């Protein structure tokens, strides 16, 4: 049974339709729509590869045997899907977008208002963490792994809230705000705290919380409780490691920017002092000539 599971690919029409629609929208956006409406520079080869990688990652996550195992056997497999949908696929998608492609959506209307100001940062992290907490409630979680339409909706919402959560760090539009590195550091630090509390609670619960897995066969000898605790670790550890990497990148960018500002200030002060000395020398020379 264990071996046969690895051959069970789940070609859900809803998932395939979303992936095809997303691919078609991207191809149209970087191609005819960009040329027709002059939406910035063409997509680079790197951006197109990033998008292809994102689609391949989503396909493997939602169509491969991982989806069957996540729905019928292991809570930890389902959490692996969630982590991919919220932590790894969204930055690939955002980085694949040419800078000017989304500008028309952000020049006016509700999206422009929503993405500006500090309130957007609170909205992004609130929706991201609240969505996690909501779907972990057993009354929603159990139907989501048993009813395919609800499961597809859950996956789509996870992906969307993941994109929203990454948006302040990877803004793919020149019309959107460019948050200072100091604000990004604070945002990234605070963003992981609520989910950390949820993971601690899940890890120390002494019995599985979801009926969908308590009666399932113990796949590969993993008990229901061990699977539940492993899921709590998977939910937090990869995101924490990625946060540390991103925090380090942003911190060193912020540090480099501070050094650049200090250098420019020092150069300006030196230039002002030189100009003052030159002016003083000219005035002294004029006084001597008089």
Verbal overview:
It is a single chain. By secondary structure, the chain is mainly α. It has one domain (2-105, 117-282). Helix content is 77%, strand content 0%. It contains 15 helices and no strands. The protein has helices at 2-5, 13-30, 32-37, 45-63, 65-72, 75-95, 103-106, 110-114, 119-135, 138-146, 148-166, 181-191, 193-204, 211-214, 224-289. Helix 4 (45-63) packs antiparallel against helix 6, helix 6 (75-95) runs parallel beside helix 15 (224-289) and helix 9 (119-135) runs antiparallel to helix 11 (148-166). The longest helix is centred in the C-terminal third of the chain and has 66 residues, at 224-289. The chain is elongated and about 105 Å long. The N and C termini lie far apart (105 Å). The model has no long low-confidence stretch (mean pLDDT 84).
